Amino acid sequence: AAGEREERERPQTLAEISDAISACRDCPIAECGTRAVMGEGPSDAPLMIVGEQPGDQEDQQGRPFVGPAGQLLDECSEQAGIDRSAAYVTNAVKHFKYTQRGKRRIHQSPTAKEIDTCRWWLEAERALAKPRIVLALGASAARSLLGKTVSISKARGTPLPLDDGSELWVTVHPSYLLRLDGAAREEQGALFARDLSAVTARLKELG
Ligand code: URA
């Protein structure tokens, strides 16, 4: 299937990508959520923010990062001087993977294979938006962008070069912070804030 994919023509606009993703059945998660959740933001954004996959709220509303993790991301971004509306915000995987427990839909992490299958779409978004900086939130996003698994604690703080000359900055996922409390939350929150501020500084430097 990967070979067929390479031959399939890459969509030429973000709107075309959105339509094509909705029709994608390359992995089993496509049957899982309500809809594919495409990225959103200016097509020439200098910053692309990449999460893992849509959650329950995102799946219902059809927009990335609108649930609890998105609210935390918005708050922390604002504090760090990142304007969300000027960034292109998307996910490594475009469908919500979950297990049903009663009425609740419980998030399940995508497998490496699912991330790698969906990577084609993120690459297509990146090829069109051409951000100068890509911020990966968490291990799934980092894997998608690098094509291999990296340790967040080792990768954070220093940009990694991507194939098109842009820079990849890696940090934790805001959902991780939501699962912590007390001193751990404070400590990790401060590190997250530091990572976001480093991205702001770098964006300014790049002009
Ligand atoms: N978590 C993500 O990784 N992405 C979203 O869009 C929402 C929650």
Question: How would you explain this protein's 3D organization?
Answer:
A five-stranded mixed sheet has the order 2-1-5-7-6, sandwiched between helices. Strands 3-4 form a two-stranded antiparallel sheet. It is globular and about 40 Å long. It is an alpha/beta fold and 207 residues long. The protein is built from nine helices and seven strands. The chain has one domain: Uracil-DNA glycosylase-like domain (Uracil-DNA Glycosylase, subunit E, 3-Layer(aba) Sandwich). Bound molecules: uracil. Uracil (URA) is lined by residues 51-55, 58, 64-65, 67, 69-70, 91, 175.
- How much helical structure, as a percent, in the residues? 40-55%
Question: Quick one: how many beta strands?
Answer: 7
- The rough form would be described as globular
Q: Which fold does the CATH topology refer to?
A: Uracil-DNA Glycosylase, subunit E
Q: How many separate structural domains?
A: 1
Helix-strand sequence: HHEHHEEEHEHHEEHH
Radius of gyration: 16 Å
Kindly name the structural category: alpha/beta
What is the mean predicted local confidence, pLDDT?
94
> What is the assigned CATH homologous superfamily?
Uracil-DNA glycosylase-like domain
